[in-house]
Amino acid sequence: MTDAVEQERAAKLKKSGWWWPGVVATSLAGAALVAFRGCWHRRMSWPIRAQGYSYQVCLSCGAKRLFDEDTFRAYGPFRYTLNELIAWEKSAKTKSHPAADVERSAS
Question: What is the mean pLDDT of residues 55-78?
Fold first, then answer.
């Protein structure tokens, strides 16, 4: 009778012991993802206009992203200062075809 009870306990421990490493591995993977990725920028503010540019601000971390008012979409990289975004925008315009800028300004 004690052999049956011991076998049942051993089987129960084997079945219930599998979840602990899974929880630890999942927690570590989640922590590593947050550490490497950082904020997901899911909560963005309404567009703000300053210095002739429109941008949005992440309400979680404060990162800014340029915003196109014509298409009502954000574009470009995330940066923490508006001056860095303006510099990125100017460098992106100089890389584009000059004829396209002339046509855009003529319309």
Answer: 94
Both 52 and 29 in one domain: the answer is: no
In terms of Cα–Cα distance, which of 89, 87, 94 is closest to 74? 89
Percentage of residues in the chain having pLDDT higher than 90: 45
Q: Is the Cβ–Cβ distance between 64 and 78 less than 8 Å?
A: yes
The one-letter amino acid code at 60 reads S
The reply to whether 72 falls in a domain is yes
pLDDT tens-place string over residues 20-58: 666 556 666 666 655 676 788 889 999 999 999 999 999
Radius of gyration of the chain (CA): 27
Q: Answer positive or negative: Cα dihedral of 106, 77, 40, 29.
A: positive
| Judgement on whether residues 53 and 26 belong to the same structural domain of the protein | no
Cβ–Cβ under 8 Å, residues 66 and 85: yes
Number of structural domains the chain divides into: 2
Range of the domain at 92: 48-106
**CB-based contact 76:88 (threshold 8 Å):** yes
